[in-house]
Amino acid sequence: MRKINPNNFHVATRGTSREINRQIALNLVRTHQPISRADLARIMGVRRGAVSLIVNDLLAEGLIFEGATGESHRGRKPTFLYIDSRERCVVAVDIRVTRTSLMVTDLIGRQLVATSGFPTDRDPKRLVAELSKRIKKVLSEHKEVGECKGVGVVVPGMVDRATSRVIHAPTLGWRDVEIRESLASATGLPVHVENSGKACALAQIWAARGDAAATGDVVFVSVSDGIGVGIVVNGEILRGRHNIAGEFGHVPLSIDGPRCPCGATGCWEAYISNLATLSRYFGRNLREAKPAAAEVTTFTIEDLIVRARAGDAKAVAAIEATARYLGLGLASIVNAVDPARIYIGGEIIAAWDLIEPDVRAALAERALSPDAAKTEIRVVSLEDQPRLRGAAALVTAPAFAAPPIA
Amino acid sequence: MRKINPNNFHVATRGTSREINRQIALNLVRTHQPISRADLARIMGVRRGAVSLIVNDLLAEGLIFEGATGESHRGRKPTFLYIDSRERCVVAVDIRVTRTSLMVTDLIGRQLVATSGFPTDRDPKRLVAELSKRIKKVLSEHKEVGECKGVGVVVPGMVDRATSRVIHAPTLGWRDVEIRESLASATGLPVHVENSGKACALAQIWAARGDAAATGDVVFVSVSDGIGVGIVVNGEILRGRHNIAGEFGHVPLSIDGPRCPCGATGCWEAYISNLATLSRYFGRNLREAKPAAAEVTTFTIEDLIVRARAGDAKAVAAIEATARYLGLGLASIVNAVDPARIYIGGEIIAAWDLIEPDVRAALAERALSPDAAKTEIRVVSLEDQPRLRGAAALVTAPAFAAPPIA
DNA sequence: TTCATTTGTCGTAATAAGAGACAAAGAACG
DNA sequence: CGTTCTTTGTCTCTTATTACGACAAATGAA
User: What pTM did the predictor assign?
Assistant: First the structure.
């Protein structure tokens, strides 16, 4: 039951119904391809004639194409329709603290070229220069991917919706940094910039096929250097007034808790970020500028998990503590948003088999109802590259979005 | 940019555009009445002819009516249109721990009969019996209000969306209580039941006229016996999977903090509920079953505020502490949801002039960006009866809601 | 070969928006 | 007092799109 905003509404014009049905058909081709006109008509519950008109439009625009004729046990064989991803591609970019990754996908997010990467230069100008060089290189070396329709860039920080400037990316040390314009002019391509948590959530809802829960209210929690959270409400990313909604990483577990890079104390992030877990293992605060043993500076979460699996009691304890805090924070998300499903990504989930019971127990401890405590949790492994898939979705998703109505 | 759910979409039919424009016109009549057909056409950006067709439909259905002809400086005088609230009304019911209130409004939420109330009987059966008696009485004693179109009931607890059963209302001690069916059959009227926080939020977005920010992303925080929070995203109440979204009252400030009635520890509610503030003043936990002085049991927040204004240092300290915790919790809401505006209601806001600086300072302390720290906060006084207006909106709002599209 | 079935297209009807003409009502003005 | 101009609300015609049914083409089964 949505209220119509009397100050900003969209009157239906002659073409509105068509536009709605066009987008529905396009989405169904995307999720059901290969699919025939007749099947589309059946799924949509409209006449084949109506579908034919829409399909002809989509064909004329080059959004879909007719492929092979399908098999049928009797009667005329159907001609299959597909999203037209031939000769066109998208470049996805993931900027992280230490490394920037790059992937080329087709228009429905399927990877076309092996992921590559390079060390992140924290100077924005140099980073953009390096990035545009790499983008041009990969596109010229792989002519077969066709025309690039745009670049999606994911950053670990807040992004202004109107200008796409990076307002604040703590781990990179960026404040009010401009990258969209410069990357766009350097590459000559349209560029979209988005926060990594939101992009990960985007990747999940656009990846979902035939999964009803995956399109409704969903939350993605990325546990890494920082905590990125993307919230989806009614199939739409929750942005809020300043496009910074979803920062559950800085909702406190204890306001008297450990200091967080954001400046506050006791943020969830300060308990479960990779650095926090490692600090727990080494028994001191790794953020403080004390001289640390070489082991400490190069030691990663993956190493910690290896030790835990090998029976290192201190490693197990550190991971279990993180598991508990992870669950307690998830309880806040469950109580506040009550999503149908929570996705969790990040290095720590390589140890999901070890931590799941503790996470669920902690979640149940604070969840307000038994049903809420049973909220589905799905692990997204690093190999699924949710950030890069989200970056690609920044470019590909708008063509499939619902038109703004009423 | 909303994703179309491929498993649950709404194909546009011949009548869809009409339905959309009909709802827009109806909403504009509601927010702009009195208004002429010509003005409607101007606001909607369509021809007067199209508006006339829609208006004729709405007239035929009795949703609007033609009133007096208006004045114009030159040219033909317009005939004004109004929402037709003649001879029809809505009963709004607010069930709280100690008292149940009852109000009669017209179809756009304007109060028709003085609010009445009675002590809440915590036995659901007896409460429903008393309530239906009162509803029948007020409707028969005020024949002028016309036909009752429905009853909206607001409860301080979680409500199941499908069955309208009250899953859990801690302060009332209710678990899985049925009241909609029994009240509906006792009164012969349609009954809607909703959580009080959500209803308060609903009241704000439906009360708003000509205020763009009030229809977007908005949060209502009600500070009372418990903390009720209602979140509005895109003009729609955020419900989540189990209709329990918005329970920020049980997001922790400190997981090691005071025990909360919900069973967990350190919930926001445990810091800023009226009982928490009073406990702070009396220097002990009022929830514990220790024998308390008569003064303690009858002492209210209003009394505390009086003492604070009179210069009682302990009272000032108790209120200021609550102010700080209130602001810290608001920061969680701001970081998680980033609303355009936060409404605050409850007894404590009678001292808003005393606490606002502390609230804002605490909010700024944890807000992630300067803009977020400046999030607009509006106080809603008890006299505005947000709960009851929300209860009325439960019945009146559906007629004005946007049709489900795509 | 015949028949049933399925696909995709075509033609007609129904519905609603887009555009503009027009009558009615009334103020301004000579 | 009559003329002119403006504004409102209705009406007609056109165009676009869905709704419905018929039909040809394709194809396997009897």
Answer: 0.93
**R_g over Cα of chain B:** 23
A286-297 pLDDT, tens digit each = 565 555 555 667
B107: closest CA among B139, B140, B147? B147
Greatest alpha-carbon pair distance for chain B in Å reads 77
More confident of the two residues B328 and B80 = B328
Judged by CB atoms closer than 8 Å, whether chains meet at A28 and B6 is answered as yes
Q: What's the rounded Cα separation, in Å, for the pair B61 and B26?
A: 12
Tens of pLDDT, residues A212-230? 677 789 999 999 988 999 9
Tell whether B7 is covered by a domain: no
Three-state DSSP class for residue B287: coil
Nearest Cβ partner of A212 from B8, B365, B366?
Answer: B8
pLDDT of residue A338: 96
Contact indicator for A338, B240 with CB cutoff of 8 Å: yes
| The predicted structure's pLDDT at residue A194 | 96
Neighbours of A77 (CB within 10 A): 11
* Predicted local distance difference test score (pLDDT) of residue A389: 95
Query: In whole angstroms, what is the distance from residue B59 CA to residue A311 CA?
Result: 77
d(CA A177, CA A159): 9
Nucleotide nearest to B20 (CA to C1'): C16
How many CA atoms, within 13 angstroms, populate the side-chain half-sphere of residue B144?
2
**Residue A159 β-bridge partners:** A166
Q: Which amino acid is at A171?
A: T
B5 closest CB neighbour out of A5, A235, A240: A235
CA-wise closest residue to B193 among B171, B167, B164:
B164
Q: Are A400 and B167 inside 8 Å of each other by CB?
A: no
| Complete DSSP assignment for B359-395 | HHHHHHHH-SSHHHHT-EEEEE-GGG-HHHHHHHHHH
A214 and A171 housed in the same domain: no
B402: amino acid identity, one letter:
A
> Strand B147-155 vs strand B111-119: parallel, antiparallel, or unpaired?
unpaired
| A275 & A356 share domain | yes
Closest nt by CA–C1' to B52:
D9
pLDDT of B180 above 90:
yes
Q: Which secondary-structure segment (H or E) carries B13?
A: none
Question: How distant, in Å, are the alpha carbons of A188, A275, B35, B393 from that of B64?
Answer: 54, 62, 11, 18
Find chain A residues with C-beta within 8 A of B4's C-beta: 23-24, 27, 235, 400-402
Give the nearest chain A residue to B2 (CA atoms): A236
Question: Distance between CA atoms of A375 and A341, rounded to whole angstroms?
Answer: 6
Angle, CA B403 vertex, CA B401 and CA B405 arms, to 5°: 140
Task: Answer whether A78's CB lies under 8 Å from A70's CB.
Answer: yes
Looking at residue B159, which CATH number applies to its domain?
3.30.420.40
DSSP B238-269: --TTTT-TT-GGGSBSBTTS-B-TTSSBSBTH
The CATH number of whichever domain residue B22 belongs to comes to: 1.10.10.10
Domain that holds residue A27: 16-83
A312 and A214 within one domain: yes
